[in-house]
Amino acid sequence: MTIMSISISWRSSLVLPLLLPLLLLVSSSIRCAGAVQTSKLQVLIPQDLRKKGEGYDHRDALFGIPPYGGSIQQQVFYADSTLCSTGSGSGADDIKKGGYPQRSDGSAWKTPFILMVDRGECTFVQKVRNAQRLGASAVLVADIMCMCDRPDCDAEADGGAGFCESEEPIMADDGSGSDISIPSFLVFKEDADEIKKVLMDNVQVRIQMSFKVPAPDSRVEYDLWTHPSDRNSRPIEKSWGVAALALAEHASFSPHLYIYDGLRAGCQDDQGQNLCFNLCTNQGRYCSTDPDDDLDAGATGADVVVESLRRICIWNLYGKKDGVGQQWWAYVDYFIEHCDPFVDNDYSSMAVASKFNDPVCVQNAMDSAGIEVQKINDCMANSGELADMSNATNSLLEKEIADQQASGVILIPSLVVNKAVIRGSLSFSTVLKAVCSGFVAGSEPLICQECANCQDELACVTNNGFCAAKHGAFQIVNGSVPVQLFGVAIAALVFVFCCVATIQHRRQQMYMQDQIRGIVQEYMPVTSQTGANDTSMGLPQDDPDDDDDGHGNGGASAF
Asked: Quick one: 219 exposed, middle or buried, by C-beta within 10 A (0-12, 13-18, 19+)?
């Protein structure tokens, strides 16, 4: 037991430093890639703060849900708090009553609003989350240090410390940002200072944050970057297949499997030996993460590389031609459902090994999707040798690494629409809105026209573009009852109650009338001295012949 624990500790401590250069290379790649801007920041009021062209330079957060195809246009408040904590009750109220511009009546920020807050003292996610709790529609994080390479950077002005930033900060997710639903931007110090100065002079500032996807023509091209062991990719991989089929020839999809370049990460020494053990194949040339974080048991990073190559071949043979890939989506769905242990939240090494590596499960997945197993095996073999002890190159994996470096993708999963990286959580709703906003106006397919703004986008796409909410039907989404349906139910209950109350009231009147008539008949004379009916009590008498003119045998007593 002692020897094994020492072995694991030694191997882990060796591998992690070797992977650190890889992470640095990956994170820096976004700066050298020509990423297309998908958002715009512009001041509307006052006019002297407005910038021509594309507005203010900024950086999008890698969390939150941007409203692609739309914009947020609201008044801006500048918080005089770091928003690292909002407290509760009076503490949160005090924050909302403070800040700039100041209100003479001491009122709180009126929603909706955009909140500007200074960077520092806590994570970006924590600041934006607290702003969301305070009612903000969006957040602008003002940088407090300027970029060293900017001509207008005055390092001495940054608190007198003389500091400046040599690299752009990234508004990354700290791992807990899945609950954030509002967008946020990082604004560089020089621009943020101008806006803050106007706000602190108690002048109203109104800003527009726009979110768009380049729309060059009537056909959208979109790419999904992921890898087989990524747990965050599961929901979109299982749900998006129906949308890919619905978009059909209007869009072209391409999956990309994220493979780490082991040579750049230092996983191969000068003698061509693998230094990263079972995280890599081909003597440290192609690497991936360990599915169960256990280097000595269960599935390995090398197994993930093999599965990645298999999916590349499935796509090339069954999806690349039409850009839809029905068989590819069917295979991935079956694999996640039956061969992926993480679906059952079973992360043990034995479970991972028995499912992720099982050739029988993989073959069943291909059979269920209508894929010829031999064709895929031939494709994998023809692309180049893939083995632990081989230092040969694989043409398909080399292409994936080249595409990865060219795109500058650093976050998995990532969606690229018309060469623009989509920010935020990749929910079905976000992906559909992003893809649909990539069409030229007027060329959107029916699935986008009907479903992109539907209450339940997935149900709409599944129902061939029928949005129940738009057509007067009602849907129960995520276990909640729509307001319209609740209102109709209440109105129906009120109507039924009124009908029952009216019927009961009339029955009660008839009953009381019968009771009074019985009493009168028992204790009062029913005829006058002349023998005519006595109507002195004002009680109506029945006319047997229903003859209003008095003819016939009317007026005779019933008893």
From this structure: middle
